[in-house]
Amino acid sequence: MRQNKQGTAEKLIRAAVDLISEKGYNGVTTQEIANAANLSEKTLFRHFGSKQKLLETSLERFQYAEEMRIFFSEQLLWELENDLLSISKKYHDIMNRDRKLIQIAIKDEVHIPGFKERRLQHPRQLLTLLTDYLITMNEKGKIVCSNPTMQAFTFMMAQYGAFINDLEAGNNYPGISLKQFIQENVKIFVRSLTISSPSTP
Amino acid sequence: MRQNKQGTAEKLIRAAVDLISEKGYNGVTTQEIANAANLSEKTLFRHFGSKQKLLETSLERFQYAEEMRIFFSEQLLWELENDLLSISKKYHDIMNRDRKLIQIAIKDEVHIPGFKERRLQHPRQLLTLLTDYLITMNEKGKIVCSNPTMQAFTFMMAQYGAFINDLEAGNNYPGISLKQFIQENVKIFVRSLTISSPSTP
DNA sequence: GTATAATGTCAGTCACCACTGACAGTCATA
DNA sequence: TATGACTGTCAGTGGTGACTGACATTATAC
């Protein structure tokens, strides 16, 4: 019965993440979480000591950390359209993997020391990576880029908006999919960044 | 003392919106709300009957409704850069005015019948208005627009992302302001929509 | 077969919280 | 000065929810 201990904690964490992301930390009872995990409430407390600690443990896995950095250093082809597409996809992959954790983080209500800071550091890192990418592309003469930081930021905000929209509004816009959005957004940036001289009609 | 009744309800609603947007519906007690409004808990219940009803009443003001439609029919100059700028500004004006209500809506936890539906209808309306605008601009020969719906959607998502980012991350990106973002985003769309022939380097 | 570790059951504690009733105070108006 | 509309105080009630302790149960390992 030694290996069951980890399995039990895992079940509880999954149930907690599921329920809390739906109904909020204060909207779920430890009883409900235990039931959803097919375990007794007592077991929950034996493993985590408190509801708050259970949440903290659940949120610890919230670290895509190095993944973006590695992606940027290994997967880029220095071909704008291609790269922006794969960056977008990677972004949504990562975000969707942590979908429920992000939902919890947004609903917040809960104050875990340092958590917000840790969370906000990811998009800052992405902004840096993306900015550096644009700068290099500019140096290579492949794009015309006057303000790389703001352009990277704008690109990110579009992705972020689409993700949050999908997260909480689901399929609010009939006939519009995330894939289509990514393609159109990349097209717009490619067109905008590969103009030789600004067109003045 | 007749006019005080409305003033009292107003105070309570304001306090409720402030606190609930911060800590979530289940994270605030009626006691706290009453204190924040400098009124007794009893008065709160005399006015609204229940905590839930207080929230519902607070959320009823959440209707920018016609404002966007009127703006689109009256304030546009049919000059792309100018119009996209003023649309962006109007959007953020409206969103910021209802900042706290939107925060409550996102944290959700609360299930008020029909509320979510009512809320989601606003961005859908904006999408329609913006799409129609692009179509007309295309017909006027002022832009080259292959896929107006997706382009309007992309423009919206960028605004939405920037708003949500500002809402919950505050000043996470030092040196980047909302104003700068709006300008850069508009520039990107203008460049992208006013290319006569796609440049292939 | 017995020790050990993990879980379940059950009854219960304690604090908090939405909400109430009874009574008293305050102020404007007639 | 009396009435009425509004608010405050206070002492409650009933329910819920996080968390505990004592004891029984199961499975595994030696």
Task: Report what the structure shows.
Chain A is an all-alpha fold and 201 residues long. The first copy, chain A, has 2 domains: 2-59, Orthogonal Bundle (Arc Repressor Mutant, subunit A), CATH 1.10.10; 65-194, no CATH class. The first copy, chain A, is 71% helix and 0% strand. The first copy, chain A, contains 10 helices and no strands. The first copy, chain A, has helices at residues 4-23, 30-36, 41-48, 51-59, 67-74, 80-97, 99-107, 115-139, 148-169, 178-193. In chain A, helix 2 (30-36) crosses helix 3, helix 3 (41-48) packs across helix 4 (51-59) and helix 9 runs antiparallel to helix 10 (178-193). The radius of gyration of chain A is 21 Å and the shape is elongated. The first copy, chain A, starts with a helix and ends in an 8-residue tail after the last helix. The model of chain A is unreliable at 197-201 (pLDDT under 50). Chains A and B meet through helix 8, helix 9 and helix 10 of A and helix 8, helix 9 and helix 10 of B. Chains A, B: This is TetR/AcrR family transcriptional regulator. Chains A, B: Pfam families: TetR_N.
Topology summary:
The structure is a homodimer of 201-residue chains.
Chain A: H1 4-23, H2 30-36, H3 41-48, H4 51-59, H5 67-74, H6 80-97, H7 99-107, H8 115-139, H9 148-169, H10 178-193
Helix pairs in contact in A: 1-2, 1-4, 1-7, 2-3, 3-4, 6-10, 8-9, 9-10
Chain A binds a DNA duplex (30 and 30 nucleotides) through residues 1-2, 4-5, 8, 29-31, 39-43, 45-46, 49-51.
Question: What is the number of E strands of chain A?
Answer: 0
Report the span from N to C terminus of chain A. Answer: 75 Å
Rg over C-alpha atoms of chain A, rounded to the nearest angstrom: 21 Å
Poorly predicted sequence stretches spanning 5 or more consecutive residues of chain A: 197-201
> Could you estimate the helical fraction of the residues of chain A in percent?
over 70%
Strand percentage of chain A lies at under 5%
Q: Tell me the domain tally of chain A.
A: 2
Instruction: Please state the overall shape of chain A, judged from the principal axes of the Cα atoms.
Output: elongated
* Quaternary organisation of the protein chains: homodimer
Mean pLDDT of chain A: 91
> What pattern of helices and strands is seen along the backbone of chain A?
HHHHHHHHHH
Instruction: Output the number of helix runs of chain A.
Output: 10
Largest binding interface between chains: A-B, 50 and 50 residues
Sheet of most strands of chain A: none
Query: What structural class should be given to the helix and strand makeup of chain A?
Result: mainly alpha
Domain HTH tetR-type (chains A, B): 6-66
Pfam family, one (chains A, B): TetR_N
DNA-binding region (chains A, B): 29-48
Keywords (chains A, B): DNA-binding
